[in-house]
Amino acid sequence: MTGKHIEVFLVEGVPGGITTAEIAGWTGHVLAGPRSDLGDILRRPEAKRNGAYFLLGDDEEALGGVRCYIGRTEDFINRFRDHSAKKEFWDRVVLITSKDDSFTEGHWGYLEWRLVELTKKAARVTLANGNDPRGRKLSEAQASDMEAFLDQLHIVLPVLGVNAIRVRKAAPESSTASVDSPVFTLTNKKHKVDARAQQLGDEFTMLEGSQVVARWAGTGKAESTERSYASYREQHRKLLADGSIEVRGDVGVLTRDVPFGSPSTAAAVALGRSSNGRVEWKCDDGSSYGDWENRGVE
Fold this sequence. Notes:
Distance between the termini: 24 Å
Shape: elongated
Number of domains: 2
Low-confidence stretches: 171-178
Structural class: alpha+beta
């Protein structure tokens, strides 16, 4: 796997403020910032270009805890004046533009359509778009250009904490190896748990189709254990509520890939009780996630 040179610049010198990101050799430019800095964002030269954008806001009941609106515009300033008055949910904005401003309205319309399509496929956030954008007709060469542009967005957006279009990569046809890690399994015949997961970048992701407990049963006795169980139980509840876990008889089935912060959290949600994920998740050869994690260390 080849490396990527991404230049991230903190405009105000503080994390969480206005940030720009570029990839060496790429014509794209991404500008992100909080809603409280919208005035400064719209005074920047990027706001005078054509482009596409994300509006993002935290929402406990949304997929992944995030609500998202995707749009495109030829005039960021007037569009965001309108959004500020009519849309309350967002607290972060991401502007996507081209440094040479060579793309037409058709190019950005195509990108908007693809971003919405990919966000639905990834199912990591709840879309706030009322209507689906219509894909613009581009020539074969122009569509190829925009798909290449999208390939770079798949890399740079997660660096800025935007995971709306982040999906699991398929393994190359010429290789039987996983792109990021082996596929780990976790089984429990008594509770009909049969789950699969991979370490994808910085996320431990339980894979679509995994069987997990349909209902949370675990309880903790110590105060610290009760807090942990309450957190796991709430994650399980949210996954049921948003349809990520579908109950089929007495088993829960994942309807999408679901990322977790650690293998232990994923194991707890799968088993319905606290669990050491570094021990529970196994490779095909019987070794544990912890063994794989420590490969090459000794």
